[in-house]
């Protein structure tokens, strides 16, 4: 183990553009990455996302649009990348499974497992769902052999294929989960995974004959076959950093956090660990499993027609608003609900009122009474409200990061809003606008404003993982550099420091904006 970390989102399947549900995963992983970077240092954290571009579903989607698969995925992958850029997702790697570097890496891993005797050929007849791109056993299907996901009858097909030994590693995976209680988080998913691993597992079919599907990575030991899209996609978690840094897999990958949705728990808990072990590689650190973001109580999905485009919310409400809403509303691991009405309520109450008003009041008073200059450093005078403010802001960033470390993004934001609440009450209790009418009380007003400005600085810095644009705007309004921004409460702003005039961060929304 090192003090380096590798963080991944799932590798998004490229047959449709991202929606608010897929954005949630990228935003949670991004908040986690940003929080870890400020604890460990920028260079010690790598954050990877990307697109999964092979397989039959993509070939069909491309065909429906009348274009070659690569041209189709060039377009769809770019839509994901633009969405993540638009939401300020700070990935270090954006991997495409069609990257030549990735393809070579997958072939190396196939060759490794093959040479260790973990890949074998056998004739296979089975029930295959084209939509799922997988074989089913009869007991997994609905009556009349209907796919439970697609509600369509599956096809019986017969063909020779390559299989990866899975059950061989089952005991080892179970033992690993038992020895590392937080390997799969939250707990409910750990228990689900242990249930899946409680019975003997079928080996995984990892090939498709080219006669049926050419759109994939060729097997290094049989040019008549390409590899199964799922097998291919897993390696995207490591292919790019491992190609750049030979020590990556042994030194950094054991500290990897995979952010995934609960629908792919089985593939990640049951198939991915044996894939790694059969290639002679270590396991990752955490599987961080989230629930659905529903839309008016219903699961968001392309087929249900309730898909919301995440970037359109960014455009309509401003930067960070969707980020704030999802990370504040959704409890990681549980299902959450998205609605525009609720987003506007949160915007007005939390962003326009609590955060926006606080920022503009502090900066307006600093400008009005002292021309924007702090005449003293923040300090606790012999005064109860000063001490309460210092207590609320002291260690705020550490408390927030500790919540994020356990995936409690909502609690991290609640901690910041509790501090804001104390800061807003401090304005009411100390009433600097009243004191300022008396010349003799100006030194006390100066102290109050120094404390408030310092509180705003700590809040601005604490917000970075969740609201990076807002964080930057607040710190820019305060004209602080990176070192001062990160200082503990009371040690950031100095006497003589000049801040900028107020500007509205979150103007109130009076009605539906779109
Ligand atoms: Zn299916």
Question: How would you describe this structure in keywords?
Answer:
20 helices, six-stranded parallel sheet, binds zinc ion, four-stranded antiparallel sheet, alpha/beta, 47% helix, Isoleucyl-tRNA Synthetase, Domain 1, 514 residues, Rossmann fold
Q: Find the CATH topology of the largest domain.
A: Rossmann fold
Biggest sheet record: 6 strands, parallel
Supply the number of structural domains.
Answer: 2
The mean pLDDT is 94
Reading side by side through the largest sheet, how are the strands ordered? Answer: 3-2-1-12-13-7
CA gyration radius, whole angstroms: 26 Å
Name of the CATH superfamily of the largest domain: HUPs
Level-1 CATH class name of the largest domain: Alpha Beta
What portion of residues is helical? 40-55%
Q: Which CATH architecture of the largest domain? A: 3-Layer(aba) Sandwich
Outline the low-pLDDT stretches: none
Taking the alpha carbons of the first and last residues, their distance comes to 49 Å
DSSP helical segment count: 20
Description:
The protein is an alpha/beta fold. The protein folds into two domains: 309 residues, Rossmann fold; 146 residues, Isoleucyl-tRNA Synthetase, Domain 1. It is 47% helix and 15% strand. The protein is built from 20 helices and 16 strands. The protein has a six-stranded parallel β-sheet with strand order 3-2-1-12-13-7, sandwiched between helices. The two termini are 49 Å apart. The mean pLDDT is 94. The structure holds zinc ion. Zinc ion (ZN) binds next to loops.
